[in-house]
Amino acid sequence: MSTAPPRVYAARLVGLPIFDPQGDQVGKVRDLVVAIRSAESQPRVLGMVAEVFGRRRIFVPMTRVTNIDSGQVYTTGLLNMRRFEQRSTETLVIGQLLDRSVVITGSAGTGAGVRGTVYDVAMEQARNRDWVLSRVAVQEPAKGLRRRGQTHVVEWRDVQGLVGREEAQGATHLIAALNEMRPADAASMIHDLPVERRAAVVAALDDERLADVLEELPEEDQVQILEELDSERAADVLEEMSPDDAADLIADLPPETAEILLDLMEPEEAEDVRRLMSYVENTAGAMMTPEPVILPPDATIADALAHVRNPDLTPALAALVYVCRQPLETPTGKFLGVAHIQRLLREPPSTLVAGALDDSMENLRPEATIDQVAAHLATYNLVAAPVVDENGHLLGAVTVDDLLDHMLPSNWRDRMPRDGGPLGARRG
User: The whole model's pTM is what?
Assistant: First the structure.
């Protein structure tokens, strides 16, 4: 008895690890590349867009894919490390087909005449071993009190609206996929979207998520996206960004635009950004984060541990608690010292945090150069360090990720490792 070929849905492929024959992970799936020739014939799947070495995107032909099974993708291990560039004859399944407005035709039987949007697409192997897009998952608009509309899974040929451009394509289902990703992964996908599609995605993202993604994008993408937003929303997004990242981005804008946005921001948020922008570039003051975990000396160890549990803190910011006298907003009152998370975990919860201070370190000054900051972190084996002014007030904290952002070249995510990795045939 013959069995139906396995069907793989594109949205479930995104994020799956890709392995070589030795079982070593070489990347992650980010999208499928297909060639759409007509509304009737099933599009051939040309390959996968894979993310390797952090943020670099390459093309993996389906001829290099040996198996898709149990949430994993296996390849021959022979990969071309050249950056993926989409051709005019190619379509990205996740980036361009999701959220298309379509109509199910009469030949589909059940669901005929229904209008809806694409929320997933399935592929399977044809008899000639080529992978083709075979099924389309369509969701009707919500009706009445329903949160979600009815769904239908139909043959490719039974759907109209999948070929050609759509001027007003939504982004609901693509946004859902992006929200499941880490900000850096979502930023990488948005970076490679066509201009019109990226604009729709940016418009649909909420301000907080857009801020997280902007922090991970290259500078030119950050500026372009921010300039395309209306001023009110741009200011709202900047408020959601960490002040040091917002300061770096505003510094890349034309001065008149920067001043308009700063005036539209909440005064407290704008004050932090203006202060960071007042320091010389690539100094401790310019790269520091003005919102570390700051506590008064009468706080307990339990208070400190509760603060560093905040999931919004990066690991580097959660590594130290900064103890100061009032006021606790930077610039603070007198800076008393730092308490390391390791030390806090060894102390009774009711103990005062002031009793666990490490006051043996010298403090960074805001004018410290990038090399001096690096030497300071290396000398004391730190992932973060306080920045203190000449009067002993805490101004902020420099973390190792702040330092690396400024030390690495602007295009470091796109650069290949020295060994270049295994190379295969170029795309034909």
Answer: 0.73
